[in-house]
Amino acid sequence: MGEKKGIQAILDNAYAQARQVLGEGRVASYIPELAKADPSNLGACVLLQDGTEYDVGDFNIPFTMQSISKTFSLIQALQTAGYEKVFSIVGMEPTGDSFDSILQLEQKDWRPFNPLINAGAIAVVSAIEGENIFEEFVELVQKLCGDDKIMLNENVYHSEDMTGNRNRSIAYLLESRNVLQRPPVETLDDYFRMCSVMVTAKNLAHYARVLANDGIDPGTGERLVDSDIVRTVKTLMLFCGMYDESGQYAMKVGMPSKSGVGGGIVAVGRDGSGIATYGPVLNKKGNSVGGIRIMEILSRELETYIF
């Protein structure tokens, strides 16, 4: 990564350029609570391996993870159920379909293509083992994000639950194909709650730094995730993490990343750094307009492109 003294200037410039494209998208409205987000919000956090932090804009505004939660639930499933069980019910291939598509389930294969689309994430959540799955999920998020104040947004959870009929359709279709490992109602309740956990860009940059350092928190030296799991998650993030825009994003940004319709993007740097952005204005693919622009500039200027 470039000289530290220049990183803040690069970040400030990326932020300024990203603000200019916010008019090219709109805030998610299919979940009523998400429609309340301020479209002018935009922020980013860069956390270097040594703990040096660079911030700009609304980096500390909480927002719900939405699909970013799929990376955490995948880690939880791999930790509790194991690789073989998880990937016996979900694949690991990119898809050109939208994140909530059901076409593939009916026409191509009974297994969802990967864990980072809705069908795959619902299958993964059904595979998680434990006594208090959601509570243990929150503990995992708190640990990986370095913030024990992270919690559920009850209003968003109830809004997700009220408007989640497409996800219910996916869950019952998966159950009809004997994919789900737990009952649909129970699985979906955990899934909706996981999507509704609040984080900040700073939290996600901490998480990305853990992934960038092979599952070890550089601040404490503690291993939080096994290296095999980290490799699996980062690989899927690179090829599947940005919905059906993943290939184009990988070409332009070149960092394992995951987005969510809450407006967040989390990205793993090649040099042990973690980067995250927040901007609730989304493009037609469901990715943050401002966040993508910031990531494109940072990847180029900070040389975090992994290839």
Q: Ranges with pLDDT <50 over ≥5 residues?
A: none
Whole-number count of domains:
2
**Which CATH class of the largest domain is shown?**
Alpha Beta
Question: What's the Cα radius of gyration?
Answer: 18 Å
Number of helices: 13
Q: Level of helix content?
A: 40-55%
Mean pLDDT: 93
Distance between the termini: 14 Å
Anisotropy-based shape: globular
Q: Per CATH, which architecture of the largest domain?
A: 3-Layer(aba) Sandwich
Structure, explained:
The chain has about 300 residues and is an alpha+beta fold. The protein is built from 13 helices and eleven strands. The strands form four sheets. The protein has a five-stranded antiparallel β-sheet. It starts with a helix and ends in a 5-residue tail after the last helix.
